[in-house]
Amino acid sequence: MPYLETVTDLGPETLLRFDAIIDVRSPAEFADDHMPGAINLPLLSNAERAKVGTIYKQESPFQANRIGGAIVARNIAEHLETALADMPRGWRPLVYCWRGGMRSNAMATILSSVGWPVGLVKGGYKTWRRDVVQGLDVDTAPLPIILIDGPTGSAKTAILQAIAEQGGQVIDLEGLANHRGSAFGGFDDLPQPAQRLFETEIWDRLRRFNLSRPVYVEAESARVGVRRVPRRLWHEMLAAPRIEIHVPASVRSAFLVSAYGDAVSDRDSVARSLDLLKPFHSKETLSEWQALADSGDHRKLAEVLMLEHYDPLYARSRKRREDKPVLVVPLAGLSPDDIAGAAKAILEGA
C-alpha cells in the first residue's frame, strides 16, 4: 500500500528518519536557500517556472495548472529514470516545494505510488523558513557565545577549526559566508551564498548545539563580506566575553601571506581589494601597495596592510569595547602544533 506521511516538525531528529530530503523547486529557488542536506530535483526549471507564472497572470490559473501539470509530469518521469532509478524498495524520501502545493504533492504522490514510504513537508519551504526566522530574529533566549578575538593574521579561523576538531562547538562565520572578513577576503572562484542560505547554515548549527556549553565564534563585524550576521547572533556577539590571541607582528605577516596567497598574488584581485580602501588611505599610499603586489613582494604587502590598515582598525574597534578579555592566549608561532595548543588552552580555560 502507498504510504504518504505529512511532516510538520522539521527538527533534526525528524529529518534523520529520512534517507533523502528532496527539494523540487526550481534551481534558482534552491540556490537562494534550501533545507540542510537537501538535493534539488526540480519539477520546473527556471525558464519553465517563469513561463507558467506568466500564463497564470496573463491568461488564467486553470491554463497555467494544465500546462504546468504536463511539465511537472514529464520531469517526474525523468527523475524516476535517472536520479531515482537505483533507489531500493525501503528508501524513505522527504519532499517539499515552496509552500507544500502542486509540485511537492505531485512528486510525493508518484513516489509513494511506486512503493516508497514518503514524507511530505506541510507548508513546504516556508515552514522551514519560519523556523529559521524564529530562531535567528525572534527568539531572545541567551546564547553561550564566546568570541575568539585578535588582530589580523592571528589565525583565528584556524584556531576555531582546531577547537571544533577537539570537540568544541563552533560557528565559523567566515567559512559559512565564503569570505575572510576583510577587503581581501573574497574568493573569486567561490561566490558568497545568498543571505537566506547563510542564515540557514547558521541556524542548522545552533539548533544542534548543547546550549549549556560554550559556542565559539570569531569576533566579526555585523557583515561578513556582503552577508549580514543574523540579529540574534549579532546582539549576543556584542555582549559576549572574548578570548584574545596575541601573536608577534612578524609571525602574523608571514601567516597572512599563506592565508591570503590567492588574493595578494593576483594583480587584478589586489587592485579590486585596494579600491575598497580608498575612503581610508591616500592615492599615493594605495599606489605604493599596488606596486608591492606588482613586484611580487607579497610578504611586504601583507606586512604594510597589517600594520598601516588592519592593526589600527582593530585598535579602534577594541577601544569601543570597555571589557577586558577573559583569557589571553600568547603564541610565539602559528604552526599546526601552536594552533592546536591554543585551541586546547581555550577549551580548558573557558
Q: Any chance you could write out the topology, listing elements then pairs?
A:
Elements: E1 3-7, H1 12-15, E2 20-23, H2 27-32, E3 39-40, H3 46-58, H4 61-81, E4 93-96, H5 102-114, E5 117-121, H6 125-138, E6 145-149, H7 156-165, E7 169-171, H8 173-177, H9 195-206, E8 215-218, E9 223-224, E10 227-228, H10 231-239, E11 242-246, H11 249-259, H12 261-264, H13 267-275, H14 283-295, H15 298-319, E12 327-330, H16 336-349
Parallel strand pairs: 1-5, 2-3, 2-4, 4-5, 6-8, 6-11, 7-8, 11-12
Antiparallel strand pairs: 9-10
Helix pairs in contact: 3-4, 4-5, 6-9, 7-16, 11-15, 13-14, 14-15
- Sheet with most strands: 5 strands, parallel
Shape: elongated
Uncertain regions spanning at least 5 consecutive residues:
none
Number of E-type strands: 12
Percent helix: 40-55%
> How far is the N terminus from the C terminus?
55 Å
Radius of gyration: 25 Å
Q: Count up the helices.
A: 16
Could you report the average pLDDT, rounded to the nearest whole number? 91
The amount of beta strand, in percent, is 5-15%
Main sheet: strand order: 1-5-4-2-3
Task: Provide the succession of SSEs.
Answer: EHEHEHHEHEHEHEHHEEEHEHHHHHEH
